[in-house]
């Protein structure tokens, strides 16, 4: 099969996915086509040698997959130039995709607005005039449906104190605790990219999973899509790790009402009911401040921005000085009200 290209039937120009309309759009003449009406050549949901190309970044080694007409002039992970390498063979295509809903212009405007809100960031950073690049990336995720069978054993007490005559009486009742719990988690996301920072990707959640669509190659037009680095089996331990705090919280909610609780045994058996390979939209922003690179990520559907901006030492010092001054005046006021005077 030849390389997939989407040419405008009107003018012959390259067509791209338009996040504003959700359609395949021609930037040259304005033609828009409904993606649902476009035949998808990937009927078997398998990437073959002629359908996509693999690029390797010479700087950081990232492996990314793009449509042939995508303008991939820089690595979405480190900003360096990428070069064409060998073709991909035999890789499964994603089952579903959440298309971009925020355009590049909207993403840039939102990022600049976000920079201006930083109370402790340097003044120079707040101008947001050092953006080195912004790239739309479809990040590979596995969505898990998990079933948990949980058995909990423990001991609880209920303590009651009351007064009878001249005596203060305390009664302690002891209980053996047993809970058998079944918990199901649907569409738990775990990013499958080796190059993406897991903490950064986790903070981008939630994604609107009601907007998942069956995968079609036109959604990739004009963007970059990375292939998954880890299989669903390899990431199952991390999926279980992500649910652990929620499991603990739910168990705690079932043993409320006791004065003390000691859980002596907890058995959690997790089963993967389903795992789907999906692509989720992320804008990667590369910012250079004082010759130090900063990477930020934006949810391509909700606009949520995450990342660690630089901190101004001067603003932090001024903030602490202000807090210290207020605390000092408060203590002086309390001392004066108690008759101690202004010392």
TrEMBL record:
<feature type="transmembrane region" description="Helical">
    <location>
        <begin position="316"/>
        <end position="338"/>
    </location>
</feature>
<feature type="domain" description="TFIIB-type">
    <location>
        <begin position="6"/>
        <end position="38"/>
    </location>
</feature>
<protein>
    <submittedName>
        <fullName>TFIIB-type zinc ribbon-containing protein</fullName>
    </submittedName>
</protein>
<dbReference type="InterPro" id="IPR013137">
    <property type="entry name" value="Znf_TFIIB"/>
</dbReference>
<keyword id="KW-0472">Membrane</keyword>
<dbReference type="Pfam" id="PF08271">
    <property type="entry name" value="Zn_Ribbon_TF"/>
</dbReference>
<keyword id="KW-0812">Transmembrane</keyword>
<keyword id="KW-1133">Transmembrane helix</keyword>
């Amino acid at each position: 099969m030849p390389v997939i290209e989407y040419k405008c039937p009107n003018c012959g120009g390259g067509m791209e996915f338009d996040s504003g309309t959700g359609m395949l759009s021609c930037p040259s003449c304005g033609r828009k086509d409904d993606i649902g009406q476009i035949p998808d050549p990937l009927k078997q949901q398998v990437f073959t040698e002629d359908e996509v190309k693999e690029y390797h970044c010479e700087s950081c080694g990232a492996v990314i997959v793009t449509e042939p007409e995508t303008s991939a002039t820089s690595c979405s992970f480190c900003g360096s130039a990428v070069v064409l390498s060998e073709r991909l063979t035999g890789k499964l295509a994603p089952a579903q995709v959440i298309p971009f809903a925020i355009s590049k212009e909207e993403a840039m405007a939102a990022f600049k607005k976000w920079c201006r809100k930083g109370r402790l960031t340097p003044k120079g950073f707040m101008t947001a005039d050092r953006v080195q690049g912004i790239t739309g990336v479809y990040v590979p995720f596995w969505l898990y449906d998990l079933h948990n069978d949980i058995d909990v054993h423990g001991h609880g007490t209920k303590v009651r104190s009351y007064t009878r005559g001249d005596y203060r009486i305390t009664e302690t009742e002891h209980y053996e605790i047993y809970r058998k719990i079944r918990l199901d988690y649907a569409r738990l996301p775990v990013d499958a990219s080796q190059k993406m920072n897991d903490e950064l990707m986790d903070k981008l959640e939630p994604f609107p999973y009601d907007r998942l669509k069956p995968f079609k190659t036109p959604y990739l037009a004009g963007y970059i899509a990375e292939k998954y680095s880890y299989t669903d089996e390899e990431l199952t331990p991390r999926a279980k790790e992500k649910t652990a705090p929620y499991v603990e919280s739910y168990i705690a909610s079932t043993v409320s009402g006791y004065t003390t609780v000691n859980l002596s045994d907890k058995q959690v058996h997790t089963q993967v009911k389903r795992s789907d390979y999906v692509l989720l939209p992320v804008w990667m922003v590369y910012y250079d401040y004082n010759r130090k690179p900063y990477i930020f990520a934006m949810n391509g559907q909700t606009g949520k921005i995450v990342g660690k901006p630089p901190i101004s030492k001067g603003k932090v010092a001024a903030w602490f000085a202000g807090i210290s001054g207020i605390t000092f005046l408060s203590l002086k006021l309390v001392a004066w009200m108690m008759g101690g005077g202004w010392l």
